[in-house]
Write a structure and sequence with these properties.
236 residues; alpha/beta; Rossmann fold; globular; transferase
């Protein structure tokens, strides 16, 4: 039985993760690690972290960044993780499960179970299709259906016997953007199709970016509703 927690307050994703996972000294896999920001943050907390990413440009950026410690980056996809069985204590999907093709989402969660030790944690953090940031990003690609599919895959995994759900937490994740240009670059890093859509829709996107964001501390901020599901790997 999971403990559902509704907490519609502003909190950073890393803080929510730290509430539910002991990270120091743990072997952590960040699936879909992007440019490696979370990998480096978790390494700074004492975890032994491997980031897995399929996007070549983001992987290059992750490897080029100043390391936080002994973190590593591997090229791969969630549905076929380049890691052996029982290689991790924690597997994190930080806003990445909905980027896995819908037909492979169940396989990605099965792969998380495979690489986890019994009692290990799968932490699946997903943006909810709501709020100002979603209204902005949906102008590039409307992810409502894939985000719903990702949540359904999490529910199925929790009911399928390889995991037991420990908690579900809903909160507001603050998204900070230095400028419209930073937003456009971030959106374009996902794939070439998005990069082209951002370029083609620049006038509308720029206008909506400034309408929907809150300017404070010299940056543009959005509150993104998010959901963290904490799953415990079963087995002896």
């Amino acid at each position: 039985m999971s403990a559902a927690v509704s907490s519609p307050v502003r909190r950073r994703a890393l803080e929510v993760i730290r509430d539910h996972a002991d990270l120091a000294g743990r072997r952590v896999v960040d699936v879909g690690c992007g440019e490696g920001g979370l990998v480096r943050a978790l390494t700074g907390l004492g975890a032994e972290v491997v980031g897995v990413e399929c996007g070549r440009e983001m992987l290059e950026r992750a490897r080029a960044a100043e390391p936080a410690g002994g973190e590593r980056y591997l090229e791969g996809v969630g549905q076929a993780l380049p890691l052996p069985d029982a290689a991790a204590d924690v597997v994190v999907f930080m806003n990445s499960l909905h980027h896995v093709p819908v037909e492979h989402m169940a396989a990605a969660l099965s792969e998380a179970a495979r690489v986890l030790v019994p009692g290990g944690l799968a932490l699946v953090n997903e943006p909810i299709a709501d709020g100002d940031f979603f209204q902005l990003t949906r102008l590039v690609e409307d992810e409502e259906d894939v985000r719903s599919a990702a949540y359904a895959a999490v529910r199925d995994a929790a009911a399928g016997g390889r995991f037991v759900e420990r908690a579900e937490v809903v909160y507001l994740n603050p998204v900070r953007m230095e400028s419209y240009e930073a937003f456009a670059q971030r959106m374009g890093l996902i794939d070439e199709t998005r990069k082209a859509r951002v370029a083609a829709g620049e006038e509308l996107l720029r206008s909506r970016f400034h309408e929907l964001s809150e300017v404070r501390d010299g940056a543009h901020w959005f509150d993104q509703p998010a959901r963290l599901n904490v799953l415990v790997r079963t087995g002896g």
